[in-house]
Inverse folding.
């Protein structure tokens, strides 16, 4: 696990300035590493998530910096998806799920009752584990979000938006001649890139990805990873992954979750070469997972 | 090594038994299919052999003289005179000329009964259309009476003709008509354009078809939107708690309630409480709506459940509101299933008799309904009514009506399959 960091990645690291630990944390806060950044895009403080009686997330506090790629790793069932989904209130749709804590996006409180969920999800987009294009044409898939939000004035503007989104998702060349064919007719990797295009068509500030490559073959995976690198220039990205190589390849910081707790969050390089916490070390050396 | 060999030996020993069981299993499957197909074949041949006769009707040729003295009609354009004209008289006279040997009042009355009551109307219509016919003669084919029809159709039967109420004299006359080629079977158009009648040769299915149509229209217009809305709400919006559980149990129970109970309910609520008129399709439709709603709700919910959750997540993730998710994504994807369920519910409603008996749709109604508030009957009730009639000729009418009903059912079910194939986007 020593030399998986790429040089490009190393370069990105410098962009994330560290911030001293804020005071408003719960007493038993015990995350190792540097969870707080000076240039935070999203701030989460004292987050607890419950499914009915069962608690899935314990006291997580951290920041996501502007234009960083944050990887979240951890054993199955440790709450990565739960935490990720609470960032754009996807958990609202889950029966019996209760979220506590402060979440802010820039200076806006995400869980403010006045916060418009539609706007929030446009600002914090999501890409899911299984590619889930709508059973509509490629064009309509990408057009759906802009249409919902009504962010274009003219048909040609929409066309332009769709072209740009597909280009940014690296799918344009493959689908430009079949825009009006079903999106479900694409290959798995293309479908996932279509979902990414659909997500960026509403110009989000943050993109959440929950194991976006777990249903894809290595080549399609490589293509998406490359894409994440490109997207990081414009967007803030939080990605859940089970592949430590992937986390190492794409991310600036890596967060390690264990049984609902955020154990360590550190430079990706550091996490995979010299983890500070023994649980992190145990996980990355494959003692459990 | 020895272990391995042992196992394969054991497997080999058991193979014969396994194959035998496999064969038995398949045999039973084939047997039950053969049995059900046989039952169907027997049912259909019975209905078709009994009912095919109803699509043809016996006609008799008569030479009519529009004699003004017998008609007591001198100016065919005078409505009042026309209404009172004695058209029966010219028919009687025409038959007497054909059979001049017939003497005595009883025989003469018997002779008149060769042709249907409808003959007088046919003659009147002719004269109305062409008043210039007055005083002239022409030859006309008119409907034979139902007894003659039954007798004539059974002439070639192996076990001898069905004489029924016909006398030997009448049979002689029919024979004479046959010899002269003045009696024949023609396609029974009347059956498809008329309403019910006490005279079998004049009884038609059209009234019941229209009644069924209006009743189903009301049922569809009410139960489809209500059922789909209820299913959507329960599946997509309602919180899962004791109340929704209770509702769910009750809907499932309602689907199993015997249909006659819905008839009683309709009687108590719509007729006794709301004072709605009896026997009208509007009322029938309301009662059938109560009956089909549970079916539609259950099948719609199943269709909604079958929509992959990933689609909902995708839409939520872009910021669609729950209503937008339901309307843009869930509803279109669930629609084929909902439609099929509804059509099958409609087919059930089309065949439903018991609840309609309770709300008076069993009345004898001659006029064909022209709106949802006209008294009417429906196909299955018409079948019930005819099967209960004493005249022999109604036997074939009953079977023919069953064939018409089955035809509609087959069409509806085919439509359901076709719609499902058509709308289901497999992409
Ligand atoms: N809808 C739910 N209802 C109740 N409990 C849930 C629900 N979703 C998740 N959980 C529980 O919350 C805990 C965290 O689940 P989560 O899906 O966030 O884990 P994860 O880290 O994403 O796991 P994986 O790597 O397998 O995706 C688990 O114990 C899980 O059983
Ligand atoms: Mg997960």
């Amino acid at each position: 696990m020593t030399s998986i960091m790429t040089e490009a990645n190393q370069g990105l690291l410098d962009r994330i300035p560290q911030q001293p630990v804020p005071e408003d944390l719960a007493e038993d806060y015990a995350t190792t590493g540097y969870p707080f950044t000076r240039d935070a895009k999203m701030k989460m403080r004292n987050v607890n998530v419950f499914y009915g009686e069962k608690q899935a997330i314990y006291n997580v506090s951290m920041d996501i910096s502007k234009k960083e790629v944050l990887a979240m790793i951890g054993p199955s069932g440790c709450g990565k998806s739960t935490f990720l989904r609470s960032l754009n209130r996807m958990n609202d749709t889950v029966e019996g799920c209760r979220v506590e804590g402060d979440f802010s996006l820039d200076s806006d409180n995400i869980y403010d009752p006045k916060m418009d969920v539609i706007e929030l999800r446009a600002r914090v987009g999501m890409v899911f584990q299984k590619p889930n294009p709508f059973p509509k044409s490629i064009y309509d898939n990408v057009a759906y979000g802009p249409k919902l939000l009504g962010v274009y004035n003219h048909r040609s503007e929409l066309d332009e938006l769709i072209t740009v989104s597909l280009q940014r998702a690296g799918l344009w060349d493959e689908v430009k001649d079949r825009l009006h064919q079903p999106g479900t007719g694409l290959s798995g990797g293309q479908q996932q890139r279509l979902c990414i295009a659909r997500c960026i068509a509403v110009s989000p500030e943050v993109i959440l990805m929950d194991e976006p490559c777990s249903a894809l073959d290595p080549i399609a995976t490589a293509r998406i990873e490359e894409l994440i690198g490109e997207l990081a220039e414009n967007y803030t990205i939080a990605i859940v992954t089970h592949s430590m190589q992937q986390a190492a390849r794409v991310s600036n910081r890596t967060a390690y979750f264990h049984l609902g707790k955020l154990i360590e969050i550190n430079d990706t390089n550091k996490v995979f070469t010299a983890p500070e916490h023994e649980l992190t070390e145990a996980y990355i050396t494959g003692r459990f997972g | 090594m020895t272990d391995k060999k042992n196992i394969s030996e054991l497997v080999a020993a058991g193979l014969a038994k396994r194959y035998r069981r496999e064969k038995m299993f398949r045999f039973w499957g084939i047997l039950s299919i053969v049995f059900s197909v046989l039952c169907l074949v027997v049912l259909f041949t019975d209905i078709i052999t009994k009912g095919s006769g109803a699509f043809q009707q016996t006609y008799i040729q008569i030479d009519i003289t529009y004699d003004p003295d017998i008609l007591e009609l001198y100016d065919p354009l005078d409505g009042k005179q026309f209404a009172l004209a004695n058209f029966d008289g010219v028919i009687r006279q025409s038959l007497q000329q054909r059979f001049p040997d017939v003497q005595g009042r009883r025989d003469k009355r018997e002779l008149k009964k060769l042709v249907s009551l409808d003959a007088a109307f046919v003659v009147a219509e002719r004269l109305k259309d062409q008043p210039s016919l007055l005083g002239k003669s022409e030859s006309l084919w008119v409907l034979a009476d139902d007894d003659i029809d039954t007798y004539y159709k059974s002439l070639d039967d192996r076990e001898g003709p069905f004489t029924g109420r016909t006398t030997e004299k009448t049979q002689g006359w029919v024979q004479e008509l046959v010899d002269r080629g003045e009696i024949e079977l023609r396609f029974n158009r009347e059956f498809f354009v008329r309403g019910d009648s006490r005279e079998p040769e004049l009884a038609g299915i059209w009234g019941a078809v229209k009644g069924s149509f209006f009743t189903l229209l009301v049922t569809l217009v009410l139960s489809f939107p209500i059922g789909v809305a209820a299913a959507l709400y329960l599946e997509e919006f309602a919180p899962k708690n004791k109340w929704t559980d209770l509702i769910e149990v009750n809907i499932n129970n309602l689907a199993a309630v015997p249909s006659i109970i819905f008839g009683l309910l309709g009687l108590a609520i719509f007729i006794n409480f709301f004072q709605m008129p009896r026997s009208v399709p509007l009322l029938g439709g309301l009662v059938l709506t109560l009956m089909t709603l549970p079916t539609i709700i259950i099948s719609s919910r199943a269709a909604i459940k079958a929509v992959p959750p990933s689609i909902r997540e995708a839409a939520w993730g872009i910021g669609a509101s729950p209503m937008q998710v339901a309307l843009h994504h869930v509803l279109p994807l669930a629609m084929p299933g909902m439609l099929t369920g509804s059509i099958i519910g409609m087919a059930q409603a089309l065949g439903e008799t018991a609840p309609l008996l309770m709300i008076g749709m069993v009345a004898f109604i001659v006029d064909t309904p022209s709106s949802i508030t006209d008294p009417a009957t429906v196909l299955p009730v018409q079948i019930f009514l005819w099967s209960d009639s004493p005249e022999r000729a109604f036997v074939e009418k009953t079977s023919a009506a069953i064939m018409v009903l089955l035809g509609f059912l087959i069409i509806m079910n085919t439509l359901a399959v076709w719609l499902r194939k058509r709308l289901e986007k497999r992409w």
